[in-house]
Amino acid sequence: MKVSFNELQGMARKAFVGIGFEEGDAIDAADMVAWLEVRGLFGMHALKKGLEFLLQENPRALPELIYEDADVSIFDAHGNSILGSASLALELGYARARARGLSVTKIRRCHNRVLVIGYLSRLARRGINVTAFWRNAHEPLIEQWVGFRARDPEPEVCLYSLPDSPEETEPNDGITLVMANHVDLLPGLRSDFSLNNLMRQTDQDLRRQREHALVEGMEVEDDLWRTLKNLADRLLVEATQDSRSGAGAGTTDND
Amino acid sequence: MTTATAESANWMRPADQVMRLPRLGSLHASRLSFSRSLVRQMAREDWVVSTVRFDLDDHGHGTVVYRLETPGSTYHGVVFSQALDPERRSDRVIAEAWDVTFALVEGEVEDTLLAQMAANVPLQEAGRQHPRLLVLSRANKSMRNFSQFVDALGAGQQPDPAWLTAVGYLYRTTAVYGNGKFGIADYARLQRNPDFSRPFSAQMFAVYLLRHFSIEQVNHLAKIQAPHTAVPLAPALQRYMGIGNSTGLGMAPFLINHPQLIQQWVYGRERALAHARLQSATDEGMARMTALLHRARTHFQQTVTEDEEQTARNRETVQSIAVIIDWLDRTSPAPDLWVELQAWAESHCSMEAQELINTLLIELYPELIDPVEDELGCEEILELQPEMKARELLQLIESRFSWALDYDPDDDAHNHWFWYRSAEKEEPRLGVRGQEIGVEKEMPLAIGPRIHEVHWRLKRFLDTAPNGLVVEFLLANPSQKECVRRIQTMGQTSYGEIQANLWHRDMKPMHLLRTKLSFFGASRFDPKSDRWVRVTLFQGAPLFSELFSHHGTDEKRLNQLDDWSFPVEPDQVEL
Fold first, then answer.
1. What are the residue ranges spanned by the domains of chain A?
2. Is A60 in Cβ contact with B91 (below 8 Å)?
3. pLDDT tens digit sequence for A151-204
4. Thinking of the domain A2-236, which architecture would CATH place it in?
5. What is the 8-class DSSP label of residue B541?
6. A247, B485: Cβ pair inside 8 Å?
């Protein structure tokens, strides 16, 4: 079925509250999903992949701050989705960069990392340069870079697989974010490096995708939409005779 | 003459006067209301509406398609009229069928799109709507007016204008959806569209088009009923006919969930008022003000409602207007007369009458005021400032949100109501805390108590971290994130927050409804209980046929067309 941007955002927001997210986190999570989807970056697909885990997690569990100094913050999300209250980890990085010129934020052990892009857009709008980096899997090893220029809500996105996998000792389930006050951090690809399956989207590509989605609507899977609707319905209060009078009007208006 | 300057900003009323709920609940439609703005725009830009399909049967049921051409684009209005079992005729959002359903479409309506719409528009929320629809709506007949009008016109008589004074329409809408609801186009698509970029202008146009349909339909039925004797509805009555709207608590969440938009609307109105107050009153201005007051007095004398409280408010307004006219008669023009009038009214007139004066002051200076109508929209995003010191946030609350600190968590009266959505079509409802089910699912609409909680937690946080940042406060209190970013964002504005505890036993939801309806341009407030109301839109507005430029586009004519506030019953001579 086709849905509008506002409809998707609204349904996702209610579904996240239905799951148990705090109001602010539900708003942010819905914005992150809708932000990606309207730019053709498969936000609903990412949500679908993470939904099963989300339903088993404590939606209000904060990532644990395990190290911080004036420039660097390291969080452990304990395997939870980045959609939860990870936004506050990013906000700490933002505050640090504002004070120190540059900050590095690492969130270990989290999933749904691609969805973080929407929140980074929010930070960039406030005037910070942001780059995020993460690796998706071991075989083939996929790296993703996202870079926002300060004040520009549209990023550049690079996704590619490496021809050879270096020897890994750590699982690739973290995300690293660098924020800078005054310096562009857009991902510039090394011209002499051999990359496979390169996907690169510029800010213009993403703007075009968004315009297209706003005209044509966005296709979402019926099953996923039903699931979100069922979660959203958890917020609704069963109707009773008393509650009907709580809305005021009568039930027939033949005057 | 003063232009929009910083000087006028100094004359703006303080938020703790303007944003109190009883004051907002006393607002009237003004020349900045969305319906007024739309009609001005249609006249100025010479919008042309034509009928491209008129397939109504002898019962007035069928499909009608109108074409709208603006200077840059083409749209279509599609109306589906159907038979409705009286048992199913309900103005509540929980209704499932209506007398007419309609939509405004961007571009052409091809056969395939019309077929898709015919299958879905009549279902409203239960259908899946096409993304080229800008507005989706429905309306029910005023049964009494409808049959009386058809019978009178069929008999060759004009209907009694008093019928329209009692109920100012043939149809009343029960919801007018925009912004992506049920698959229709997102508002983001309209933001760069000069025809409908202003808030709710597409919805207002759809309602205006329904008014045109209602006139054509009633003429059609009278002719079918009595082909040899029927006469068309007289232009004066067509003008006096509006479109009703029946509104319940569904409007309340919008006002709370869009504080930046409310800021734009109220700021625009208050800035316009400040401009107007600064003008030096002249003989001509005083004469115009007196004429407007006379018309408004007749309008309120003629306004009918069964609601005792609103009846008393209307009566007080009428009495106040008489006193104001008398005051103006005894007063000479002076540079600060309008400031004096406003100050005098605050101690001598009812709140509705005070706001009426303000509305009429705005009316006097269109060349200063009208540019404000392009500033009533905004991009909405509540932004966190994580780097702010927590103690600054505390100071911000105490200086800008002191009204919220009046909340007393231990006082039952302060915690009386809760707001929730019913399983019946997600209809917003009010329940009494401790007596009705659903409190664990309440909607977080009461901003005052939430700010109070942030304040309470901040004080405790600062006890242990006096130099802490807001982000550190939030890492310790993550549930407060949404409220904190709202405080930080709205703390930079004057008028976004309605200064009321929406849980309080004495809170009147009707004030919330009237706030929004006044910005739409509604008149004839007719409360049916403490939480739903019927109003009329576009009563007195010029007709499509009067807007077309072959009547001339000089400024004088455009000003005459725009002069339709506080409409009064036409007399027999006009028929």
1. 2-236
2. no
3. 998 988 888 877 777 666 566 789 999 999 998 887 676 666 666 777 788 889
4. 2-Layer Sandwich (3.30)
5. P
6. no
